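A note from the maintainers: we've had questions about how concatenated examples are separated. There is no special marker in the raw files; a new sequence line simply starts the next protein. For clarity in this README we add a label.
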Amino acid sequence: MTRLVVFDLDGTLVDSRLDLAASANLLLDELGAPRLAVAEVERMVGDGARMLVQRVLAAAGVETDLDAALGRFLAIYDEHLLDHTCPYPGVVDALDALGDRAVLGLLTNKPQHHTARLLEALGLRDRFFAAIGGDTTFPRKPDPAALLHLIDTVGARPEASVMVGDSRVDLETARRAGTRICLVTYGFGRFTPDELRGVTVCERSEALGAVVGRLLDELDATVGHDTRG
């Protein structure tokens, strides 16, 4: 059975919090609103750019046209996409190791344009057979449609696939699709002990390859596999 590992992007593979927060604050500067702390913006990430801008405006107490603010934010972020963003330590090695054992895909709520630019600039694009952003024809996570599409495309099964992410959105996506889940706690998400009960957790980015590798070992033992296909 073909094995598939699908990764989230922000907070899972790359640390983009500084560039996201800086872009949000530049937008607030233009609107004459107070800036937000990086940690505050970080907690707003995960549901796509539109929701991020909506949350930023609400937190800053700004009433303005959301579509116009979103357009301006996307333009600002496009200019600052790669100022500080980089892979977390150990992520590149993890992708190299896991790519020898499974097909790798990427599923993010980040806009496709920014996703493609970032992956290309960081030298990560060729590690994934497909990378789906949050403004494609598929609904955004936690709707499982895009994840199920990736699974079907490579001829895998949900129970032989793993979703790796850092948020409740990723957890819900995996549960709806019926895949295994690995939650990383070094990223943007914050979880209660109850939410982590029974879930595979990776606390350090340097351990990502080993933790997901153990999940693949479990898949070998429980559902079997043939090759990467």
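[label: protein 2]
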Amino acid sequence: MFQVKADVETQGEFVESLASEVRAARFANIDDVVAFVHWLDEELSFLVDERAVLKHFDWPESKTDALREAAFEYQDLVKLENKATSFVDDPKLPCEEALKRMYSLLEKVEQSVYALLRTRDMTTARYKEYGIPVDWLSDSGKVGKIKLASVQLAKKYMERVTSELDALQGTEKEPNREFLLLQGVRFAFRVHQFAGGFDADSMKVFEELRSKMSSTQAPAPPASDT
């Protein structure tokens, strides 16, 4: 308590100058927000207890919280996009393990994007109120790029399934082939629904996978590209 009181008494001018910076802050893009939040957090770290000290001043708490939330959310999406786009299917891994890794990554992507979409309208309105850029939240922004990355993940999944199917030749292995084929088609349609379609390369791989269903009883319905 003594240290907090000391900060309140001696850091008033410093805090007020930061408050003015926050109120006046305007941003051209979300990267500017990330940089500003990084700078602000470094400045506030000089206080012994940020919350305890700032409550004694006219601090723009709501805008600060919105800036931090936007910066952290955007950085999380960037990390997610990087994970999806940089994913490499290790051919040395057993097929089952490789497919599980891709399935797990897709689940993380879906959960993050769907959680964002559920509150996007409300979040967008809140960010606009504080002059925070929101283009990255749109389907043509970072969200759209993550969806495109999921399409590439589906392509790798289908390629792995197709490769494994070619290796599973023989009547005695037909049940395994059918199960694997069903896995591949289900994954493909899940991504197709999530992303809103496939690109030309992924459609080509999907059609190759679909053509292998001629030996099954239930052929896959056609998928449309984007």
